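Chain X:
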Amino acid sequence: MKNNYVIGFAAYTFRCKNYKLYIITIILCVLCSVGVHADERTILLGPKTIGAGWKDNILLEARHFEKAQAGDIITVYNDNAKRTAQGAFQDPKNWQGVAPEYGCFNVGGPFRMTLTEDILNKVRERGCFIGGHDYRILRVTLTPGSEFVEKIVWHGPAKQMKNDWSVSAELPSSCFKNLKVGDGLVIHASRVEPGAAAKIMDFTWNVIEKSTDGIPVGPTGCTYYINDDTPLLKLQLAGKDNNAAMRIGGKGYRLDKVGIVSFIGKRNEDLTDVQRAPKEYKLQPGELFHGEKTFPNDWSGNLRLTAEPFQECTENDVLLIHYELLPKQEGVTPQMSFRENKGKWYDITGAQEPVWYKLDGNDVVMTFDPVSLDKIKTSGIVVTGLGFILTKIELISAQ
């Protein structure tokens, strides 16, 4: 009887240990899965050159945002940015910024966008274009907002911004001693009125950069990301003892406090489901474009060519456009048109209504007449349409 009791107790102990081990294993698995989910995740891998003239862009596909939440952060890592480089997050529906503050901003380092409910509604349906000019995208990541930490650097007293832009708060240089490129300056606001806007200035009362002259303020405030070194240099010029290294003004809101938000997480290097940028080619003589530019069936695709390469053109020259058709879709007729690269995108022939080239798999040949030649030399050209992948454009002589 005693032996049976000992054996039974040992079995019970073993089962308990196994049960505890089982519970611990489950907890570890959950923690591991949460950790993977919380990492900074690459959604697009470059390189993708965003050249001069606002002619280049790349679409972040809508699938990346299916599980995204308000507060999550998009980060664009880049290099080769010129001093005048600018970026944009654009809605494919109308080519405007997905929010006013993201329509145009300076680029000099990693730049970021905070996803709001309004932005999420757009990007989940249509995706988002990253555009601008004069920089190269290396990768784009999506990170949960929880991977960023905010430190409040200014606690007030609160300032009510009047509609005549006459009020501002002064922030000393000590607030920004740890500020770096890629960080965000968070303006916490209340009593926000329709049309409220913030103005971020240096110690000389000039705006930190053009994009900070009237940043739209939402119900709880706004975030201004430091995308290059210029704002940091202006803050440093104020000197460490200056009580007004930065001034924050504006209209139609109460400034309650100011914080700096920084990334504290780590990057998940799993590229299983990553979107890859089309391969970039070195242009050969006579080539104006060589790559893989998709013109989706939702009419969101276009390619801009500036006027520069057409300056020596004559009526004996032609554009030869190479493409591949996208898989057939019911109700979609692949087609292409050529527009003037300005204003309302009238047809390159001068007609207000576009002239459409129906695509059957054969190359498109575009010839010039005096009207189209004048327009292409002065403003350049926009290729637009749907249902195909543009692979190459050549400018050749018909003689």
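Chain Y:
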Amino acid sequence: MDAASAAKDRVDRALALLERRLLDLKGRAAGSSRVPDDDLFAPEPSTETDRLRIHELEAAGRDAAEALSRAADAIRDSLAEQEAR
């Protein structure tokens, strides 16, 4: 597998992980009648459950951003190696 394919696989895995985590968080939220559906932009969370859910979504976003950043670095490295040849 060449470096570009490896980088693409890393991006695909990061996106799949993000999607699984978001679906899991949505599933848990759907089980609670106190959490509104995807209201991430409410001015003030009304309950501790809302605050926890927002915190978890933010953490999932940060994790995905870090994974995608690493994948982007791998793609840049691969392109630099190809240009150097």
